[in-house]
């Protein structure tokens, strides 16, 4: 019995010396203090390095809905992920400033098709609505929905499926990189 304990102790000492070879800095003997239960952590994709913490007023274990809401607010929108800029209900002054009434017009009925943008395109939706599902997303997954009055800028190289549920009309122009 004593030999078994001694052998185990020797193995642990060897592991400790091996760790010092791998890590030139001293290894702390006590584990790091855990974060409070009411703190959400965002970590980097490289490892588990904390980027920032969000402290909630009440503990997560008591209010699970609060935890879900906090996680949802940290999730980026589809528009942000795919670099699509949208101004909802663009004011008439902004439309006049851009000269939207002189842009080309495109109309369609109920249809769907894949589309890829070779250049930046700025669109003002006159009537109808469009659902834009980026490539790689499932049809019912996350998508962008634009309706009449929205001013949208699609970036170059975006690939998506376009779904039109009824009559649709838009004014559009193509933009060079850096034009604003």
From TrEMBL:
InterPro entries: RmlC-like_jellyroll (IPR014710), RmlC_Cupin_sf (IPR011051), UGlyAH_Cupin_dom (IPR008579). CDD domains: cupin_TM1112-like. Residues 96-171 form the (S)-ureidoglycine aminohydrolase cupin domain. SUPFAM superfamilies: RmlC-like cupins. Gene3D superfamilies: Jelly Rolls. It holds the Pfam family Cupin_3. This is RmlC-like cupins superfamily protein.
